[in-house]
């Protein structure tokens, strides 16, 4: 349990820099959930941990201005992450309020583990850094408590989902296919679309290949003699990340051994052969995907219902003071220290 909690809090040193002074009072209320007040200190601590994670993963790609970069229309990365953090905290409070509904509680061992991790965090960070991230022991303990409750409640809620998935519901077929791409890359590795004339030539080649493939039983061998690369994929009639919907629908209408016509998609032309009407391994994997989605849907359904009745309000003037551009947070874990030692 201690190791699990340490991972949740990312126990280690949180080094801060570039503080301009946000005037945030840890005791201020940032939001109210069903009458329970979320202190700004707790929200700031969770936000700073999340900020550190994002900066470690994306700052090399997005640069120093990552938090002012637009993540989606009208929303910066800072707003996107802060919205997620506060909503997650609100949900944690709701989950805590409904613990009795699922007969969930924290054991003495879990409570002790939480206190141990909080003490370790306090020991690993100096006073100045802890003040900037609201890393007082009470907020670290409170976050760990809520995070532990969230995991236990999530497991209990998801256990109510229907996990019975039949072969028919998850049935996957198998295909071999050749993609005639209409994209290329320049010297810098940037994707470029072919000209209309070049696309017409690619389509003609795909159509010719489709006609020839229908006349042979060895799809892969025929493709290789033509200099084309054959790929394999499982599919159903809905399409997936690897099989475009148009291709999936065309192949789904065929019997085993059938070859599609030239199928046009956004990234090129496909020709495929159905190699199996039932892929056992892929079907089992699909079952797990369906079950995972059902569990997520169940959790979302329950949380959505609680949020509607939760009387949630946010004090935007307080939350605004948590500014990712004013404070840079670097997380030093045991792994990063080992990497540094190795480099030296």
Strand order of the largest sheet: 9-6-11-10
Shape from CA axes?
A: elongated
Number of helices: 13
Which structural class best describes the helix and strand composition?
Answer: alpha+beta
**DSSP strand content:** 15-25%
Separation of the first and last Cα atoms: 33 Å
Secondary structure tally: strands: 13
Please give the share of residues in helix. Answer: 40-55%
SSE string, helices as H and strands as E: HEEEHEEHHHHHEEEHHEHEEHEHEH
* Mean model confidence by pLDDT: 90
Low-pLDDT stretches are 1-11, 335-344
Radius of gyration: 27 Å
Main sheet specs: 4 strands, antiparallel
Structural commentary:
There is one protein chain. The protein has 344 residues and is of the alpha+beta class. It contains 13 helices and 13 strands. The strands form 5 sheets. A 4-stranded antiparallel sheet has the order 9-6-11-10, with helices on both faces. β7 and β8 form a beta hairpin. α2 (40-62) packs across α6, α3 crosses α6 (137-158) and α4 (108-124) packs across α6. The protein is elongated, with a radius of gyration of 27 Å.
């Amino acid at each position: 349990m201690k190791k699990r909690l340490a991972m949740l809090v990312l126990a280690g040193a949180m080094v801060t820099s570039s503080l301009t002074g946000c005037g945030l009072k840890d005791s201020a209320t940032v939001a109210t959930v069903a009458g329970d007040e979320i202190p700004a200190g707790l929200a700031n601590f969770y936000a700073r941990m999340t900020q550190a994670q994002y900066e470690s993963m994306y700052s090399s790609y997005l640069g120093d201005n990552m938090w002012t970069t637009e993540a989606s229309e009208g929303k910066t990365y800072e707003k996107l992450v802060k919205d997620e953090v506060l909503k997650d905290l609100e949900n944690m409070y709701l989950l805590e309020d409904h613990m009795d509904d699922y007969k969930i509680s924290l054991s003495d061992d879990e409570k002790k583990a939480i206190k141990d991790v909080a003490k370790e965090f306090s020991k690993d960070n100096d006073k100045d850094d802890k003040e900037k991230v609201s890393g007082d022991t009470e907020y670290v303990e409170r976050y760990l408590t809520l995070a532990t409750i969230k995991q236990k409640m999530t497991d209990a809620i998801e256990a109510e989902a229907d996990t019975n998935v039949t072969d028919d519901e998850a049935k996957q077929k198998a295909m071999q296919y050749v993609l005639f791409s209409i994209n290329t890359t320049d010297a810098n590795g940037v994707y470029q679309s072919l000209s209309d004339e070049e696309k017409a030539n690619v389509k003609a080649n795909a159509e010719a290949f489709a006609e020839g493939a229908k006349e042979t039983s060895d799809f892969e061998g025929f493709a290789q003699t033509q200099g084309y690369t054959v790929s394999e994929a499982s599919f159903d009639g809905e399409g997936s990340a690897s099989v475009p919907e148009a291709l999936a629908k065309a192949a789904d209408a065929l019997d085993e051994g059938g070859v599609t016509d030239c199928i046009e998609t956004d990234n090129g032309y496909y020709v495929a052969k159905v190699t199996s009407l039932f892929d056992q391994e892929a079907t089992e994997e699909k079952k797990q995907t369906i079950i995972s989605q059902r569990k997520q849907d169940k959790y979302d359904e329950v949380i959505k219902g609680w949020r509607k009745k939760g009387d949630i309000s946010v004090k935007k003037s307080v939350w605004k003071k948590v500014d990712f551009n004013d404070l840079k947070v670097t997380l030093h874990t045991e792994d990063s220290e080992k990497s540094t030692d190795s480099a030296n």
